[in-house]
Design a protein that fits this description.
Layout (H helix, E strand, L loop, with lengths): L6 E9 L5 E12 L5 E10 L1 H23 L4 E5 L2 E5 L1 H6 L22 H14 L6 E6 L5 E13 L2 E10 L1 H23 L3 E6 L4 E4 L1 H7 L3 H4 L5 H20 L4 E9 L2 E13 L5 E10 L9 E2 L11
Antiparallel strand pairs: 1-2, 2-3, 4-5, 4-8, 6-7, 7-8, 9-10, 9-13, 11-12, 12-13, 12-14
Length: 318
C-alpha cells in the first residue's frame, strides 16, 4: 500500500485477545498525502476461518485419498475424454508399464480387448457425462507384452483440476479367470472322454443312485439316460448283484478306491466286468459320491455270454 496499490483478498492469520486464532481476508486501499506518502489505510476485513478450516480439511482428505490411491493393491486410473491422466502403482504393474508415468496419455480403450470395448465405453460415458456409477463388469485387457489380464471393473465419476473426470477401479481377477478357463477346458476333455469311451461310466451320489451315465451305459442297458438317472443298481441288475455291488460302493464312500471283477446279469445274460470305483469329492474334500468305470471283459475271459440263471461273482482284488 506504500506504493499506492490496493489489496484484494489478502489472507492472514490473526490472534484474538483470548489467544484463539482466526483467519481474515483483507480488502484495503491506501490513503496518501500530496507527497504520495502513506498516511492511513481503509478497508474491510472478512472472517474466513470456517472456509480456511474447510480448505484444510479438504486438503487433508485429498492427501489421504492420494495416499490410499497410491498404495492400493487394486489397479486405479483417472481419465478424461478417453485419455489416462494418471494411474497408481498397481495399475502400472497390471498393465506391465515400467512406471506410473508410462500410463499417462494412453487411450483407455486401446488397453481394452475389442470384445469388451463397448461395455467399457458405455460405462465411461455414463460416469463422465451423467455422473452415474457404472455396473461392475469383468473386462479383459491387453498388456504391454501382448498377454491378457482381467479386471472386475467399475467406473466412478470424479473431478480433477475442477473438471469432470472418471476414476476406474479394478480388482485383478486374472488368476481366477485363468483357473476357470483351465477348469472349463478340463471339463470339456472329461466330457469328450465321457461321451466317447467304450467303457461304461457311472456316477452315483451318496445314496448310490445314478446321477450321470455315458452313452456306453445307455447301450448296455438299452435305456436312455433319463430312465437310468435317479435309479439304483438293483433296478437293472437284480437284488443279489446289487447287494454285492453295494458292499464295494460303501467302501468307496468311506474313502477307498476299489478295483474288482464281477459277473452280473444284464438284460438276461451274465456278463463279467472289470470295475474301478473311486470317491468323488467337493472343493472342501468331502465325499459327495463315486465314479465307477466298468469294462466288459466277458470275451477276454473266454466265456460266452449266457442267459442268466443265477448271479455269480469273481473278485480278484478286494
Amino acid at each position: 500500500m506504500r506504493k499506492g496499490q490496493v489489496l484484494h483478498g489478502f489472507e492472514l492469520e490473526l490472534l484474538r485477545k483470548d489467544g484463539t486464532a482466526i483467519w481474515a481476508s483483507l480488502h484495503a486501499r491506501p490513503i496518501l498525502n500530496d507527497q504520495r506518502v502513506l498516511i492511513s489505510t481503509e478497508g474491510t476485513m472478512q472472517d474466513v476461518t470456517e472456509r480456511k478450516r474447510a480448505q484444510k480439511a479438504l486438503l487433508e482428505s485429498e492427501r489421504r485419498y492420494r495416499e490410499l490411491f497410491d498404495i492400493s493393491p487394486d489397479p486405479m486410473i483417472v481419465h478424461r475424454e478417453g485419455k489416462i491422466l494418471f494411474g497408481n502403482a498397481a495399475a502400472a504393474r497390471f498393465f506391465l508399464a515400467a512406471t506410473t508415468d508410462g500410463l499417462t496419455g494412453l487411450p483407455v480403450l486401446d488397453l481394452v480387448h475389442p470384445e469388451f470395448r463397448q461395455i467399457v465405453s458405455d460405462g465411461i460415458v455414463r460416469a463422465e457425462g451423467s455422473g452415474i456409477v457404472s455396473n461392475f463388469a469383468e473386462v479383459q485387457f491387453l498388456r504391454a507384452d501382448g498377454s491378457v489380464g482381467y479386471l472386475e471393473l467399475v467406473a466412478l465419476p470424479t473431478t480433477y483440476n475442477d473438471e469432470r473426470a472418471v476414476l476406474s477401479v479394478g480388482r485383478d481377477i486374472t488368476e481366477r479367470k485363468e483357473a476357470e478357463e483351465a477348469l472349463r477346458t478340463s471339463e470339456e476333455r472329461f466330457r469328450t472322454l465321457f461321451e466317447i469311451s467304450p467303457d461304461c461310466i457311472f456316477l452315483k451320489d451318496v445314496d448310490l443312485r445314478y446321477t450321470h451315465v455315458n452313452p456306453a451305459v445307455e447301450t448296455l442297458l438299452n435305456a436312455p439316460a433319463s430312465e437310468i438317472i435317479s435309479k439304483e443298481a438293483r433296478d437293472f441288475f437284480g437284488a443279489e448283484a446289487a447287494s454285492h455291488m453295494r458292499e464295494g460302493d460303501l467302501r468307496v464312500l468311506a474313502g477307498e478306491t476299489v478295483e474288482d471283477e464281477h459277473t452280473r446279469p444284464v438284460r438276461g445274460m451274465n456278463l463279467t466286468f472289470h470295475n474301478i470305483r473311486t470317491p468323488l469329492r467337493n472343493s472342501a474334500g468331502i465325499i459327495v459320491g463315486m465314479c465307477d468305470f466298468s469294462r466288459n471283459i466277458t470275451d477276454r475271459k473266454g466265456v460266452e455270454p449266457r442267459r442268466h440263471s443265477r448271479s455269480s461273482s469273481i473278485r480278484t482284488r478286494p
